[in-house]
């Protein structure tokens, strides 16, 4: 392949500086093994591009900041194209539900400091409606930010060392991990250093801001609170092989599409994991589908080639071979599912004399006042750190034995339950119709009503996870809850399709739909009945998931519908 300037351009009357620049450009393209035609779409091809790809190509979304600043001067809403681009800055314009922005942050591993929390609380109070939520990716969202306040909002977030870049749009979303990483008495390794290093690579390398579609990555060190890594596009999980620790990699999870990640068949030494993960993403960037957004996730690309073929492409990028190791269930360890445990309550850390205290933050809603208080408590009784969880809750690590009772009392007073509830601790709900244009139901409101009802009516002796999502996008992963509730409408009323038997990790399963269109008003009584039937008819101490899997759908429907006398 020629690396020199094509003749047509060489004779086109450019200045020597322009020629030198173009020669360099052509040489660079050739060095990547490509022709210009492969790099830049021709005008005809550009017309064929789907809208999102065209918008990205006409102006890289990261370069749309000027427009954001310009809009701020007139407090102007973004046009349709900039609305898409601003997601790269973590800003989602909520039209038609609201005429204001929601901002999603990036908090790698969910680790946030008291200093950051305090400023986030002030930002929420001064520049937003004050509505803050912990998301299902251990992250914060704030909302109802006016266009005029966006530059100041972003400046203040960046000033405390946090980011919003790439939190939405075709980017790698917030990296998740076990919230107990580094303090967990049973973990194989502390994955936090890997997560933080990878987060830096992603933030700083522009190549990672143009994926064909959204992308999720999670790391799991085998600790007491799982990272649900198998629901991600890439799940890296620590395993013990002989006396050594490696990562196994699973690819293609996207639970809204009923897909869990599948094992790639390699083990990766710890110090190589981030390079390998980055190479997997680079292959996706090059090969992923850019003509149909509905077929553009990694899962879809993997349907067009075998894992071996994908691996060859990854190895080409790495310039080295990865160590093959067939999937071995015996290597896999899900501490969270082997040891009776929850993320709510107090638990000893691996560091002698220290504990972590987990609290329930119902459906992830937290006020600025509570955030400021949480910051204060983390400083007073812990090390000033707070970890958010994918269960829309948080834990405070590094609490000396003597401070545990006082901290728990203070958390309760601030509105965060620290007593384990097998119902409330396992309920998560997506944003719902208060703010999301896709939502068919008020998920968070119904989740709170459901918790209240169930806690009054029954007591469980083991956790049952209940996940409410407002639409099939499945932001709260209804397919992997013991009970999954998917928002719909029934005669114009908010209602839910009901799924049972979902799980993750060792209990990996896609939930099966058992009822359709149960109205939101009937929902608490319906779920109560299901749980009562389970308690009455289970064998020994089998879990709700085991109970529901033991029966076929007809039998379950009959049991749950007929059994009134529980
Ligand atoms: Fe989500 C789109 C909220 C986690 C699958 N998600 C949305 C949007 C941005 C709707 C939109 O495009 O306007 C929602 C914003 C509503 C709002 O105002 O808050 C939204 N998703 C959320 C959050 C806030 C739910 C929550 O209450 O916690 C979660 C933010 C996570 C974060 O901090 O980054 C959130 N979304 C998820 C997850 C779970 C996960 O990532 O672990 C999923 C399922 C996993 C997956 O990726 O498949 C998920 N969201 C989607 C999808 C479907 C993607 C697909 O391939 O089918 C969409 C729609 C889309 O991307 O086109 C979507
Ligand atoms: Fe919105 Fe649907 Fe996601 Fe709920 S699941 S936040 S309704 S996109």
Q: What's the structural blueprint in terms of helices and strands?
A:
Blueprint lengths: L6 H4 L5 H16 L4 H4 L3 H6 L2 H8 L6 H9 L6 H6 L5 E3 L7 E4 L6 E3 H14 L4 E3 L5 E6 L4 H10 L32 H13 L12 E4 L13 E8 L2 E8 L10 E8 L3 H15 L10 H5 L4 H12 L4 E2 L10 H4 L6 E4 L5 E6 L5 E2 L1 H14 L3 E4 L5 E7 L3 H10 L13 E3 L13 H15 L8 E4 L13 E8 L2 E8 L11 E8 L3 H15 L6 H7 L2 H10 L4
Parallel strand pairs: 6-7, 16-17, 17-18
Antiparallel strand pairs: 1-2, 2-5, 3-14, 4-5, 4-13, 7-8, 8-9, 9-10, 11-12, 12-15, 14-15, 18-19, 19-20
Helix pairs in contact: 8-9, 8-15, 11-13, 17-18
Bound molecules: siroheme and iron/sulfur cluster.
The site of siroheme has 28 residues, from β2.
Oligomer: single chain
Gyration radius (Cα, Å) is: 25 Å
Name the CATH architecture of the largest domain. 2-Layer Sandwich
Level-1 CATH class name of the largest domain: Alpha Beta
Fraction in beta strands? 15-25%
Strand order of the largest sheet: 1-2-5-4-13
**Number of beta-strand segments:** 20
Which small-molecule ligands are present, each listed once?
siroheme, iron/sulfur cluster
CATH homolog superfamily of the largest domain:
Sulfite Reductase Hemoprotein, domain 1
Distance between the termini: 77 Å
Helical fraction equals: 25-40%
Please name the CATH topology of the largest domain.
Sulfite Reductase Hemoprotein, domain 1
Principal-axes geometry comes out as: globular
The average pLDDT is 91
Classification by helices and strands = alpha+beta
As for the number of domains, it is 5
- List the uncertain runs: 1-5, 28-39
């Amino acid at each position: 392949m020629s690396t020199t300037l094509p003749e047509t351009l060489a004779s086109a009357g450019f200045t020597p500086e322009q020629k030198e620049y173009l020669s360099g450009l052509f040489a660079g393209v050739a060095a990547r093994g490509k022709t210009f035609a492969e790099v830049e779409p021709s005008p005809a091809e550009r017309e064929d591009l789907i809208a999102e790809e065209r918008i990205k190509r006409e102006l890289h979304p990261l370069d749309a900041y000027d427009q954001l600043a310009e809009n701020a001067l007139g407090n102007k809403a973004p046009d349709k194209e900039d609305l898409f681009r601003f997601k790269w800055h973590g800003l989602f314009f909520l039209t038609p539900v609201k005429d204001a922005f929601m901002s999603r942050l990036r908090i790698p591993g969910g680790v946030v400091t008291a200093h950051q929390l305090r400023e986030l609380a002030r930002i929420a109070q001064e520049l937003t409606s004050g509505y803050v939520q912990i998301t299902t990716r251990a992250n914060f969202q704030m909302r109802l930010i006016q266009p005029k306040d966006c530059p100041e909002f972003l400046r203040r977030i960046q000033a405390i060392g946090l980011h919003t870049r790439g939190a939405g749009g075709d980017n790698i979303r917030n990296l998740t991990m076990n919230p107990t990483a580094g303090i967990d008495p049973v973990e194989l390794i502390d994955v936090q250093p890997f997560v933080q290093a990878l987060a830096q690579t992603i933030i700083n390398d522009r190549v990672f801001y143009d994926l064909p579609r959204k992308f999720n990555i999670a790391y799991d060190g085998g600790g007491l609170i799982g990272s649900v890594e198998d629901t991600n596009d890439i799940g890296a999980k620590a395993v013990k092989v002989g006396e050594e620790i490696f990562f196994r990699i699973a690819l293609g999870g996207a639970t809204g599409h009923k897909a869990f990640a599948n094992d790639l068949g390699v083990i990766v030494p710890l110090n190589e994991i981030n390079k390998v993960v980055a190479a997997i993403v680079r292959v996706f960037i090059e090969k992923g589908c850019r003509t149909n957004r509905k077929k553009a996730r990694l899962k879809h690309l993997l349907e067009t080639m075998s894992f071996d073929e994908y691996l060859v492409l990854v190895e080409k990028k790495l310039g080295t071979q990865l160590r093959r190791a067939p999937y071995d269930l015996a290597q896999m360890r899900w501490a969270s599912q082997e040891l009776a445990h929850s993320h709510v309550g107090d638990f000893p850390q691996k560091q002698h004399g220290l504990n972590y205290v987990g609290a329930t933050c119902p459906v992830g809603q937290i006020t600025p006042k509570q955030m400021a208080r949480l910051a204060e408590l983390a400083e007073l009784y812990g090390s000033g750190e707070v970890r958010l969880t994918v269960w829309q809750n948080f834990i405070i690590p590094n609490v000396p034995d003597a401070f545990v009772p006082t901290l728990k009392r203070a958390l309760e007073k601030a509105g965060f339950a620290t007593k384990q509830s097998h119902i409330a601790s396992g309920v998560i709900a997506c944003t719902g119709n208060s703010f999301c244009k896709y939502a068919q139901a008020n998920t968070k409101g119904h989740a709170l009503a459901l918790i209240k009802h169930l806690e009054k009516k029954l007591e469980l002796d083991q956790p049952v996870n209940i996940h409410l999502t407002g639409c099939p996008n499945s932001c709260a992963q209804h397919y992997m809850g013991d009970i999954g509730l998917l928002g719909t409408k029934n005669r114009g009323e908010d209602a839910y399709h009901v799924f049972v038997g979902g799980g993750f990790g060792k209990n990996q399963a896609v939930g099966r739909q058992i009822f359709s269109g149960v109205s939101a008003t009937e929902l608490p009584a319906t779920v109560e009945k299901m749980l009562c039937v389970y308690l009455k008819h289970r064998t020994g101490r089998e879990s709700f998931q085991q109970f529901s899997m033991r029966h076929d759908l007809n039998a379950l429907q009959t049991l749950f519908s007929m059994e009134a006398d529980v």
